[in-house]
Amino acid sequence: MKDAMEQKKISFPRYAEYNCAFKYIVEQALGCKYVMPPALTKRTMELGAKYSPEFVCTPFKTTLGNMIESLEAGADTLLMTHGLCRLGYYGELQEQILKDLGYKFDFINLSEYDMSKKKEYIRIVRRINPRVNPAKFLAEFMEGVRMVEYLDELTGEYYKNRGFDASGGDYDQAYREFLTAMYTARCRADVEEGYRAARRAMQAVPIEKPLRPLRVGLVGEFYTVMDAFSNLELERKLSGMGVEVHRWMNVTHQFLQYSGGQKNMHVKIEDLCRYEMGPTSTANIWYARECAERGFDGIIHIKSAACTPEIDVMPVLQNISADYKIPVLYLTYDAQTSDVGLMTRLEAFYDMIDMRKKVL
Questions:
Q1: What is the pTM of this model?
Q2: Nearest residue to 225 via CA among 254, 204, 197
Q3: 152-153-159 Cα angle (round to 5)
């Protein structure tokens, strides 16, 4: 008979394509079962909005709805991350809402742990599986981290080039096969071969790019700027218009390289903002100026409704726009945001920056 630890079924809300790494770490490093949350849909948002406080930021509703779907799919343990803004309160409130709805589950809220101390990570691991092998856990965990780095690297390259694929679809196919390889990986060899095969396939695709293509930089709130469902496939829409899309904000840059780069970011933007205004504010202001100084054709700022830190960033972006004469499009997403409305604004923005580039 299997013991309780082997039967633990863990889930974490859908977030871009990072759930492949969560799955790998839970199953290979922790020795538990990972319940892949269903893909985000209109139903997810309806569930989340139905049971959420009215004025909470949109990612709260998305993740709450997806937690409900994970529990319906058989998960008995939910994991929720921590954060420096209202995200730090998500877990406690979401747990109470779900229990009030009658769901039975174990809830691991990382906000209850001091994530700056290594011993706290050990506590979390022991809570999930007390019999985990420390050496095996560390090795497999680091492979999961490497998977995240591979995902961010190839995703960034993908959206810079997919709009210029001369083959008619091979670039998209190579990227889809890479994602499939990451979601099905069960050992280090699978991860490494999946990455190498994807690089070879993407490099083999003929890319026909103008000498000076339209370049747009994306900045914004951490969840919405990266999650394709939450931003209504913004990067895919832009690249489909023949735009070279650049996005600095990802897990690799923000968390794996953030500690070393934060002080340098502050130095470069101290004339624009003196204090830290939120979890991603400094990085967004810094990258917006980087895009302006590198001669990008436009910047798009993305946030969820009611995201206070990103509201504070907007006046600073206005100053960058005025100083460098670079257009900035502001997009706010909530549960009612229309795909048709988004396309109308994107097409108008594209026409403007295209005409401006030709004139200048």
A1: 0.94
A2: 254
A3: 85
